[in-house]
Amino acid sequence: MAIKRILLKLSGEALAGNNSTGFDEDIVLDVANQVKQAIEQDIQIGVVIGGGNFWRGRTSNNIGRCKADQIGMLATIMNAIYVSEIFESVGLETEVLTPFEVGRFTKMYSIDRANKHLKHKKVVFFAGGTGHPYFSTDTAAALRAIEINADTILLAKNIDGVYDCDPNEYDTAKKYDEISLKEVIDKNLKVMDLTAAIMCLENKMPMLVFGLNEKNGIINTLSGDFKGTNIKV
Ligand code: UDP
């Protein structure tokens, strides 16, 4: 099946590169140029970015989960504003949509607005997660991919695919070329959180997992020269 519409999920950490917080601008520029090539090939692209390069579930005895998650969701908006601006700098048109009001910085998400922009070749950033605490940007990516009826989710990570165990811990770790989403869930493989994985299973949303540090990873994945893990439903 030819891929016409995708949801690209970028992890915050992968965008930070070796800096581990903030951004590595060269990495973001590289992503922007690859996305530009994909848009020129008439592929419609929605983007969800994590927030882990700024903030992740930092609860403490003094900070509760709901407030920590609000800060996390705001971190994803900072990421979307930054990345969309870099995308614009290479000639792409973008729109940042959020599920709650952020004054004049973003526009409110609606499926009609998202579809309209996608059809006009704009890259649509779905920022602010789902707008609710106790969820993740994985869940937001699953939800928006299902809503916009994407052909697949491209999951760009700081690891090059799905392994049977953590390759940083075990030399024997084996990468899967292909695996079913059911197996991912049953084996509790760390691809995305369980809520997101189950949503994708129930709604038959496949995924292509690859490393953001692979040269031309996004373009390779879209053109069939795929080196990551194909998660089937
Ligand atoms: N978050 C949330 N609801 C959502 C999406 C995100 O509360 O719908 C918060 C949550 O605190 C999470 C943080 O935003 O820890 C950053 O998102 P995530 O950890 O998914 O980013 P990633 O790990 O992919 O960089």
TrEMBL record:
One of its GO terms (biological process) is 'de novo' CTP biosynthetic process. One of its GO terms (cellular component) is cytoplasm. Residues 4-210 form the Aspartate/glutamate/uridylate kinase domain. Keywords: ATP-binding, Cytoplasm, Kinase, Nucleotide-binding, Pyrimidine biosynthesis, Transferase. Its EC number is 2.7.4.22. Its main location: cytoplasm. Inhibited by UTP. UMP binds at residues 51, 69, 130-137. The keyword Ribosomal protein does not apply. Pfam families: AA_kinase (PF00696). One of its GO terms (molecular function) is ATP binding. It comes from the Bacteria. Pathway: Pyrimidine metabolism; CTP biosynthesis via de novo pathway; UDP from UMP (UMPK route): step 1/1. It catalyses: UMP + ATP = UDP + ADP. ATP binds at residues 9-12, 52, 56, 158, 163, 166. It is found in: Cytoplasm. Transmembrane segments: none annotated. It is an enzyme of class 2 (transferase). SUPFAM superfamilies: Carbamate kinase-like. PANTHER family: URIDYLATE KINASE, URIDYLATE KINASE PUMPKIN, CHLOROPLASTIC. Homohexamer. Catalyzes the reversible phosphorylation of UMP to UDP. Belongs to the UMP kinase family. This is Uridylate kinase. It comes from Natranaerovirga hydrolytica. The gene is pyrH.
